[in-house]
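Hey, why these numbers?
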Amino acid sequence: MPLNNILLKREHTLLRSVLDHSMDAIIAIDDDSTIIEFNRSAEEMFGWTRADAVGQRLHELIIPEQHRAGHVAGMAHLRTTGEGPILGKRLELVAQNRDGQIFPVELTVSAVEGDNLYVASLRNLTDRNTAQQHIQRSDRLFRAISTASQQYIREGNVDETFDIVLNEVLDITDSEYGFVSEVLYDPSGDPYIRTYALTNIAWNNEMRAIYDAMAPNLEFRNLNTLFGSMLTTGEVVIANDPSTDPRRGGLPPGHPPLDRFCGLPIHHTGELVGMIGLSNRPQGYDLELVEFLEPFLAACGNIIVTWRADKARIQAEAERKAAHDALELSRRREAEISAGIQNSLLLRRKPVLTPHGMDVGVCIMGFTTVTGDYCDFVTFNDRFDIIVGDVMGKGVTAAMVGSAVKGQLHRVVRRLQEQTMLFGRHPEPQEIVGGLQSVLTPQLMTLDSFVTLTYAAFERRDGADSVTDITIVDAGHTPILRIRDGIQAHWLSGDNVPLGLADREFYMQNTYRVEPGDVYIFFSDGVTEAANPDDVPFGKDRVEQVSVKATNARLDSESIANTLAKEVMTWTGERIDDDITIVVIKHV
């Protein structure tokens, strides 16, 4: 075979390989918009095979109908003048797949010199735009939390504060109307709500008079309603078709339409203290929205209990200003409220949404003194991260440092996610911990404090249906106990230093394969260091023995966590000197 033919064949093979392995959709057309090339990524993006596409007109295949005339006119101008406004530019447009779905794309078009051919490179922007929208919505949520908290601190007026809260949550959720209320109990123990803020939807003169006279502090006691169901169960109530929901109580004549309803309980350290009711979100309500609003609900709970504490303090000062006992009682109550607030900020309960195939259990037992124990969860579309940590020392300083860690953690995750999503991946645990270290270390050194933590990412890889790997960064925290096949116990740990001990530190991560039935147990040092009356600590060996036994009994994650906590309390004689935080992840 002549050398020229060999070179041409090799060049053709190389070009075909480049096209077929490109991550971007590559489409080539002639000056009549007839498709002459359609690579594999284009097949995946648009649903047409190369055989289907080649020979078809581009605008009839992937351009939405409302934009086709503009494309045809543009190509006609290009044939006539040789000039096109989109050549050599990076544009964001919309395209249409075989099923008629329209989605955003990034487009660049270049001309093949001398051949009247044009090559377009397209990238699907759906995931990027969705991630950006989620980041923007999260920023709005945390700004709303900050605005409400600052308003209460500045003014001390709970009605004005929750009026801001209601307007923000209605705006964030696209709801039409709603209310924010405190949960109270009558002398017989039946719950009822007293509103702090509510949308004025008075539908007749009588209701307008009641609203004008009493708003925003109206009371509702009928439990045979959708919000009454939430009061009696303490659980989220979602009714996307209230007219057929058996929990409905009906509406008075003339009441505005109630097409969808969501009742969100506000808990504080296990107590139901309030409720947010939302109505008529066009796309309905779901558990994903509930999970998203959880930090907002926690902030509302903190404001409610702080308001209660402030009322108790003001009343005590007014009635018994000179009485030492009353002042001491008020101080103790404020200390308890402070501890409760810190616990609600730092210690998250079981997340509402967990990945397929993962059973999550959480057990938290708070020590009466404010401490720096914390745990949190971060969810990506194919990854579920858990963070468990501790701040050196106790008291308000430790708790506030722990709060700062959690707040900075979410900011670091959002910033890194925005950067790494451009490369089609999520931030690695070591990147997240490293980013947290660089932000917190100067403040920790100033406070002469440090933070230990374990960051673990459970991830689905290679298109698997459930979790396949766990990647761990251990920054001086207690190790993770893994139990495999019900009997094989192994401690997963690293040798990274805690945050705050060094200006510059590179955090190493380790990745392990996750097998079906694996159990992973995370805990704070309040578990292993809990001592009996003879001052003997509970220790790692007992943690392992109790956990293996509970796993062999085929208990779920929540029961394993509670069993371990119960054994610790039995060991200490029901006396603990530190918080106990236990999180169990079971791959089922």
